[in-house]
Amino acid sequence: MTTPQLSLSVQYALKLADLPNRHQFRRWVKAALQGDAEVTLRVVDAEEGQSLNREYRDKDYATNVLTFVFDDMPEGVDLPLMGDIVLCDPVVRREAQEQGKTLEAHYAHLVVHGILHMQGYDHETDAEAEEMEALETRIVTKLGYDNPYQIKKDQ
């Protein structure tokens, strides 16, 4: 089996010293990737996160991660998976603190989560959620982080 090829663009819409770097983002994306892909990963503020969530999901609040898959290719065209992942930094920070996780570990989990969505995984039903969460846990722990679904209660 060949290693999936990745074209990754990372965009920082805000400047903060403790954001993950491009190398970290690439490592996390590659860990979850099952085939070739062209991905743009964008880190945004709450205003942009809320605007995108409102426009594309009709939900008027900022959410942690949004995944946009470009899947309008004609049948039979064999191109790499293409899409965008948007991470809303203030939400990611708040959740990491609430869940007793490091910021890095939570970013890693959400990148893996977004990449799995790009590849067709979902969590709309209990069975889908169970499958996706098990895969996320396997990938995230293999990267050296704790189980992302095991929230620390002592925080």
UniProtKB/TrEMBL annotation:
Cell location: Cytoplasm
Cofactor(s), names only, from the UniProt record: Zn(2+)
Position of the signal peptide: none
Source organism superkingdom: Bacteria
Matching InterPro entries: MetalPrtase_cat_dom_sf_prd, YbeY
Pfam families attached to this UniProt entry: YbeY
UniProt keyword terms in alphabetical order: Cytoplasm, Endonuclease, Hydrolase, Metal-binding, Nuclease, Ribosome biogenesis, rRNA processing, Zinc
A molecular function GO annotation: metalloendopeptidase activity
Co-factor remark: Binds 1 zinc ion.
Similarity comment: family membership: Belongs to the endoribonuclease YbeY family.
Function, as annotated: Single strand-specific metallo-endoribonuclease involved in late-stage 70S ribosome quality control and in maturation of the 3' terminus of the 16S rRNA.
Protein name, per record: Endoribonuclease YbeY
Organism the protein comes from: Chitinivorax tropicus
Gene: ybeY
